[in-house]
């Protein structure tokens, strides 16, 4: 079963509640919230106060993708804001094992994200601890970029590692996900698909979300 996580990065920020309702109606499984700090990535989005407000308008689980340096400092804020999954970048976490334990200590699911150039090897010794691995299929920081083809091999390698350890971990892909590439990417083992521009730049957000779900 594939799951769809619309990323509000491409939504109309002046109408976030309304836009979330549209993907909710289309059957979205998660709301993907891209938090950017202008340091780890060259862009700034929003933080815990905005997520806390959005928590009041929907029951859909919040999948919070932290593209920030020193994530430990802010994890409790995102837990208090209502995050259900918190994903930190391997490249931004100096003590990744500790950070993962810290997230889980709040009863929240922990994910680890890998930039396109980061090897699966880097998470070999923490993978047993996480609920989800996020393979960035674009360089993080912006919506509307093209899927990086080499990431197909990376998804296959990750799936192989997960299966060899008999683990039950979600593989999320994020960046350049469209209606026409999702099936192929799912065949490599990914099961949670983040889609920003493909959903929110469309003229019928609910219907496109439904089409993603029905694939
Ligand atoms: O984390 C990010 C970007 O850094 C994403 O979640 C984007 O929001 C995906 O956007 P599209 O590539 O689907 O437009
Ligand atoms: Co993201």
Give a short summary of the structure.
With 215 residues, the protein is α/β, with parallel strands linked by helices. The protein has 8 helices and 8 strands; from the N terminus they run E-H-E-H-E-H-E-H-E-E-H-E-H-E-H-H.
- CATH architectural category: Alpha-Beta Barrel
CATH superfamily: Aldolase class I
* Poorly predicted spans: none
How far from one another are the termini? Answer: 10 Å
CATH T-level fold name: TIM Barrel
Q: Could you say which overall geometry the principal axes of the C-alpha atoms support?
A: globular
CATH class: Alpha Beta
What value does the average pLDDT take?
98
Report the sheet-strand fraction. Answer: 15-25%
List cofactors, ions and other ligands: 5-O-phosphono-D-xylulose, cobalt (II) ion
Secondary-structure element series = EHEHEHEHEEHEHEHH
SS class: alpha/beta
Rg of Cα set: 16 Å
Largest sheet at a glance?
Answer: 8 strands, parallel
- The tally of strands reads 8
Strand arrangement in the largest pleated sheet? 1-8-7-6-5-4-3-2
What's the number of domains? 1
DSSP helix fraction = 25-40%
